[in-house]
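Bench notes, afternoon.
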Amino acid sequence: MKLSEHFTLEELTYSDIAKRHSLNNTPDKFTIGNLTRVAALLEDVRDLFNQPIRINSGYRSITVNSLLGSKPTSQHCIGCAADIHIDGLTPDQIVKKIIKSDLQYDQLIREFDSWVHISVPNGEGYIARKQALIIDKTSTRPYA
């Protein structure tokens, strides 16, 4: 199912962990609505960089999320977030360019200097916080 021109429900719900443990990682209709908003933001990111985006994680059921060691309050669990890579760019390059843009992201997180978490607000009509953070082994802190 296409959520936008370049992003499908399948790629935003794919999970190696779910497959490995034979878990259902199928979102409900409300969550698919959130994933559609994420796909629209990812289209904007794709346009900003003028190149494709690779998604390593999108929607994660509470069970899948727990197996990854993530918090149950993660925006991934409600379909409002994706972890991405862009070939040829570092996470810092991605974060810096998005911060300088006018994209309306809720959170932008450089995680473990390996990928970028990007999210939309948790509900339609909510204001994007444009919060930029770094998460690594030492702490969670503002992106500077």
